[in-house]
Each structure stands twice: as C-alpha cells, then as structure tokens.
Amino acid sequence: xxxxxxxxxxxxxxxxxxxxxxxxASPAYLAFLDWLEAEADELIDEWVLRLSRLSPSYTKxxxxxxxxxxxxxxxxxxxxxxxxxxxxxxxxxxxxxEMRLHSGFPLSDVQGAFELFRLIVVDRLLEPDLAHLLPACxxxxxQCLAFTxxxxxxxxxxxxxxxxxxxxxxxxxxxxxxxxELAESEQRYKTLVNEIDDGYFIVQGERVAFANDAFCRMHxxxxxxxxxxxxxxxxxxxxxxxxxxALRNAFAERSQGGQMEYTRSGCQPVDAPTEMKYKVVELGQxxxxxxxxxxxxxxxxxxxxxxxNERMAYVGQVxxxxxxxxxxxxxxxxxxxxxxxxxxxxxxxxRRRLEMTVHELTRLDGILHQLLDMAxxxxxxxxxxxxxxxxxxxxxxxxxxxxxxxxxxxxxxxxDLPLVEADMGKIEQALLNLMLNALESLTRGGRVTIWTRxxxxxxxxxxxxxxxxxxxxxxxxxxxxxxxxxxxxxxxGTGLGLSIVQRIIEGHxxxxxxxxxxxxxxxxxxxLPCRP
Length: 532
Known about the structure:
Elements: H1 3-17, H2 27-38, H3 40-52, H4 56-59, H5 63-83, H6 87-102, H7 107-125, H8 134-189, E1 199-204, E2 207-211, H9 213-218, H10 240-252, E3 258-263, E4 273-283, E5 286-295, H11 297-343, H12 348-375, E6 383-385, H13 387-397, H14 399-405, E7 408-412, E8 420-422, H15 424-441, E9 447-457, E10 460-469, H16 476-479, H17 497-507, E11 511-516, E12 522-529
Parallel strand pairs: 7-9
Antiparallel strand pairs: 1-2, 1-5, 3-4, 4-5, 6-8, 9-10, 10-12, 11-12
Helix pairs in contact: 1-8, 3-5, 3-7, 5-6, 6-8, 7-8, 11-12, 13-15, 15-17
C-alpha cells in the first residue's frame, strides 16, 4: 500500500469514529456551547499560560506566537463541537505539524498542548455551578480530542519520515563525495585516538596541525581555534625556550623520542604542571612531530604535600622537644613574674618593664602552643554546629578588642542556614584567628564583614563562612604564600596562624580560599560540607 493510500484509509477510519452528535442535541449540550463562546477569551488566556509552562520547547516560543496558535486551535475545536465539520481542524493540524516539526518539537509536547484544551474546560466545568454541563459535553470533547491527536500523530510521523528519507538521501550523496577525500586523511590520522584522556598533538613547522579533544580541554580552547597556532602558545613563558628548543632539536635530528616536564598555558597555575613525550615520524611523506601531554598536577601536588608533611614532621619533633625543655621553665618564670608584679610596689618605667616581661613570656607560651598544635595529629570531635550562631558568639568575645581598635563589624547571616558536622572548638579557633588578623590589619574607622550562606558547588552543598576587611589587602606575591608555615610579614608574628586555620578546615573536609587585591582589602572564605 502506498503512502497516499494509507493516509486516506487512516483519515476515513478516524472520521467515521467521530460521531459527535445525537440526532437531537440536548439542552445541556447547547448550554455548554453557549458557555464555551462566552468564556472563549478567558479559556484562551489560560491555555496560553499553561502552554508556556508545559515544556522547555514551548517556554522558548514568543507569547505572540502562542496566542496565534492557541486561538486558532480553540476556534477549530469549537467548530467541530458546534457543527461537526472537520475542515478547519484538519487545516490547523497540517499547519501546526509543519511548524512544530520544523522547530524540532517532540511529538509528546504537541500532543500535550492539544490535551490542554480538554483539561482546562473540564477544570472549569467541575465548578459547582457548571457541573451539570459536564455529562453532555464530555463524550464530544473526548472524540474531538482523539481525532485531533490521532490525525496529528499520523501527519507528524509521515512528515518526519519524509524528512528522514530526504536527509538520508542527502547524506548518501555527501558520503559518496567525501569518501575519496577521507581516504587520504585516514592514513594521516589513523595513529591518533581521539577518545583518550591524554592530549595528543601533531606539530608541523612548529605549528599545531592536529590536536585531540583532550588537548583542547587541557588548554581551555575549542578545537576550531587551535589548528595552525604556534605550539609555543601552549607553554608558559618560563618554559617556552627550552620546550621549543627540544622540539627543534628532535625535528632536526629525526629523534626517536624525548620526554620533559613544563607548565602549560590556558589553565590555573595549580593545574599547569604537564609531562610531554614526543617523537618525529613520517606521515604521508611529511616528517612531523607527534606527542602526548599529560596533566601531572595531581602528582606534583602530592609530591609537594609529601615534602611538606616531612618538613612538618620534623617541626613536630623539634616542637615536642622544645615543649618539654622550655615550657615548664617558661611557665615558672611567667608565674613568678606575675607574683612579683602583684607584690612589688614599682613605679614608672620599672613597673612598665615588669609588665612587658610578663607580656613577652605569655607570648612565648602562645608560640609554643601554636607549634604544638602543628605537631599534634588533628583530633576532631564532630557535632552539629550552626556557623551563624558561632560567628555571633566569636564577635561577642572580641567586643572589647573591636572597641579598642575603633573598627566596625558587620554581620550577614540567613535565618535558615543548614548545620555542619564539625568540632565547635576547632572552628571557633580558626574563626577567631581570622578575625584577629582582620582587626590587626585595619586602622581606626575600618570595617570587618562576617557572613555565612549556603552554596552549591562540585555537586555538593556547603556552608560558607567568610571574613572580609577593607584594609590594604595583600600583594599577589604574598597571597600565594599565606598558608605556608612560618611565612609572615609581621614583625612579631610566627607565620603559623593561617597554616593552623587551613589545617583545621581541611581536617573537616572543607576548603579555604583567599580573595582580594592589594589596596582593596582581603577576604578569607571557609567552606564546610553541610550536615547530611
């Protein structure tokens, strides 16, 4: 059976099934038709509103277009229900099928759009004062909708099949044309695999002739913007001379291979360490350099952590020894000085000398305490913690310090902040450390802002706790060393405070970030995972 014959039989089957009217229309049905005409504008408005929320396909369409199509659909349905004639609904189905197929609408979306007519009308007729009309109109509406959806589905399928056949024929012609062209390129690229995680590339005349998707992702580029660019563009300036020299030497000597490490461009410095293996080969009678580059930032970071752990282990051993040898005599000296401070009736600068001695002894004890904190294994006793409440309590603890410094403290906390599972004492220690740093960096009239909020990142939920001061900030060359143990720009600092903050937060499975530039202040942002 041909397609036109099948279509005629399908239309005949649907139209014969559409028996809308009994020999004499009932008064209730006629009342329904009168109500349908009287409420037409409101029903069309409701149809457009629901249609705009039906699916992403309809949400993207202009409201004016939706009003145009809905108005015609409504009037076509109304004509079928009023006269039983199908000409208008057929014409509309042909029009909307072509329109939606061209726009790439799924079949189910348009079927759902037709279904809205019945849903909206039935919803209205369920109201108590209209419910008596529903029995008379329900069967005709169902028959009308069945005809519309069946005919639309048939038309949609027929047109889609024609388009697919036409597209397939076009593809066949294109394939036949391109087969000859692909035969030559196949030889050139058969050694490259595009579905691997490492970056593969071909360099010809120091320019990139080909690179796979992984290479593009590693350098933050689209494939279309990469071909033909100098390979040196993908190497940071510090390593560019030695990388290009190695590639030139390999090409001149037709080298069998080489390997080197460098940092690549197009990504953050922490992600830039790269390992490259390369060799010169013949591809289509043309010598080229092919290579593979691999992201080794994880390995480099792990090696750095190992070195740092070894260094901190040594610091821990030294700190433990110092604690036993120094802390007891230091505590004795401090206690005796405090007793003498109370008993001796010293005046003037002599009293000031004694106060300075007690203060410095106390400071030395604090330094030892920080060293021991770095040396001891991190012990965390988790419990549900509200970071907003904790922040308020820390501000209260520093009320006197804030007044003496002459600065303003602002707080921003949402009312429904999720809890975190954390060691309250450890988090309090970290937050107080950051707040004291902020106070020390400000002059009178400065401002500290403390906030909490929920954020979603990396597929998880986090609570963010931030401390910002509007002081001088930190220079970029200083910012990258802020969390390095013993690194400090303060004349009386130990350089351990921020290291301890980072250790505490990372021990909770969180992270610490620094934002700001020199001259505009600095913000320390702590993130802890939300409690499950």
